[in-house]
Amino acid sequence: MTVTDPSAAPRRIPRGKRRVGDVVFANTARGSGILILAILAGVAAFLIIQSSDSLSANVANFFTTSEWDANTREEPAFGIAALAFGTVLAAGIALVIATPVAIGIALFIVYYAPRRLASLLGYLVDLLAAIPSVVYGLWGIGWLVVQLRGPFDAMERALGWIPLFAGPVSTTGRTMLSVGIVLAVMILPIITAISRDVLHQVPRDHREAALALGATRWEMIRIAVLPYGRPGIIGGVMLGLGRALGETMAVAMVLSPSLVISWFLLQSGNQTIAAHIALQYPEATGYGVSALIAAGLMLFAITLVVNVVARLVIARRKEFR
């Protein structure tokens, strides 16, 4: 009987003798990656070409002007400053609200809830992602803004000395904070689902070692679970941020638009790029369409920068993989 040396390296199949299935799979995977790059480049090229007409004729500074009057080519005056500010502000509010809640839900489902309850909660959280944006918009404008008027008044009385919560409070409740809450609910299932999957992958040895050293369950989570799962959680948060940046219908329905740069979360004002495009595009013609595509180009650039930054942050945490 021949005894095989377990330390011997596995025999490699020569490149010329690779199986047909391996070759097909490798080429399919390579082609899929190239296709994604081609689609991304095509979208960028389309936005640049279609927006070049308005950008080249814009007499005002595109990045610092808040006005938007792009109906004529002779005296164009449109800027993206207010729209970009509103987009980032709404997404930031949603992220601040949704991130701790989503991580808390994921930790409860994975490490605290009984198995049956955890399965039910996971299903309900995933179900939130299947609700259309327009339904969230109807919920926001039909119920949420009405219920928030009282809390907004109390918030202004208690925290009005902070510029963010200064009055007068909007009587309609259609403010940037209302939009942030709606967006937080919308991105909650994305962050929760990814965080839950990441927390499930934490090696059992890490958790048992922390418990064996006398750590409580929370200490085990803090010193063994969260450091290991941090890259994946950050990735989930960035995916949620991308969804919040590009959300259209819910923001357009809930927010009372205004092309201003305002830090006052309890007052009506601000607007996002996606919502502005959705509201203005049906009536835009000719030069106005080019201006709206230029706004879309700015949103594309913001989303691209956010994803690049997220990848850099995750790459710095490779030691926890």
From TrEMBL:
Residue ranges annotated for the ABC transmembrane type-1 domain, each copy included: 84-310
UniProt lineage: Bacteria, Bacillati, Actinomycetota, Actinomycetes, Streptosporangiales
Signal peptide location: none
Compartment list: Cell membrane
Protein name: Phosphate transport system permease protein
Family stated for the protein in its record: Belongs to the binding-protein-dependent transport system permease family. CysTW subfamily.
Entry membrane topology: Multi-pass membrane protein
Organism: Lipingzhangella rawalii
Segments traversing the membrane: 20-49, 78-111, 123-146, 175-194, 248-266, 286-314
